[in-house]
Amino acid sequence: MSTQPSRVFVARLLGLDVFDPLGDRLGRLRDVVVLSRGTRGAPHVVGIVVEVPGKKRVFVPMTRITSIDQTQIICTGLVNLRRFEQRGAETLVVAEMFDRRVTLADGSGDATIEDIGMDQHRSKDWFVSKLFVRRGHSLSPLSRLRRNETMIIDWADAQQGARTEPQAATQFVATHEDLKPADFAEALQEMSDKRRLEVASELQDERLADVLQELPEDDQVEILSALDVERAADVLEEMDPDDAADLLAELPSAQAEELLQLMEPDEAEDVRRLLEYDEDTAGGLMTPVPVILPPEATVAEALAHVRREELSPALASSIFITRPPLETPTGRFLGVVHIQQLLRFPPPEPLGNLVDKNLEPLSDHAHISEVARTLATYDLNSLPVVDDAGRLVGAVTVDDVLDHLLPDDWRAHEDDAPVKKLGGRIG
Description:
It holds the Pfam family SH3_actinomycetes. The protein is of the alpha+beta class.
């Protein structure tokens, strides 16, 4: 095996690229998997969790690791590309050990784990050896260690609390703040129910709303139901109205109504309107807050609106032109201006001159099959949805249709996983 450093700390490995011996990139390290050896023995490091292209997380055994340092990781042999699933005896270092409270064996107080050091023994096996901890409450008035002081201690110098004890998630959230909501949601799905709720509770309302929208419905319900009811209402307000409506539809009616009562009236009104539609209609799929402007607005104003960061690419592809009022349900719907048209005309040009009047809007009661057929026929990312009075009530996007047509477990669906040969032979 290649020359190894005497010790590596897990937090410094997070996000490192994992390569095969030929220099081809396999993916990026996201966590380390350990097995406990009882109350006294240091945990055995059995593998790493690697995020491969396609944002799927797979397990790579430590026996496949030929070199590991603070700049890169090299592995060899065969790697099963089946999605990683945690087994009962396994512990994820970043997801479950960071932020865990320990009691210092010398009786001087408690501390919180912020990082973990691991060493390779002569047997070539890796074991947890050190804990980087932040000092908590001191039990001894004679202790010279101050609260919030950090230190490195041996694994044996800390007494681990029970896994059922409440645990913070500050470190996990901080080390994963760069993840897109869908990738963060996938990381949550790998956790135990207890840890998933602890991490979700640590997130800011807006971040939690974005992550919830990427989770299966059962996980959404579990997390929202575990929150304080007032905070749950705040998170629903941060969600897209159509996603909030879908989530509330999965709750008991009394619980859903309580949350709607606690939401801001304007936010709750949008969600209530969506809940009135059957889920397989355009009204049940749509978002009630697309980009809406009057015909007098200019190209420059439209471009400023579609540049908003919170807009999805599908919603940013079209501007819907209506008479006032401009909040749904609007005044009379006039037509659509596509983003490509905005790029072909000067900034002062009125949008009324660019309207595509040939694109027929969908009825809010149109079946999803008609929605999908229309999107496919005209190669569109979004379509206007109107009521019987010709008022715009929302827009349905290709993303909305895909979410509805795909199986409920599509996020976790796994085809027969290939085995990738990374280089060399297993010998």
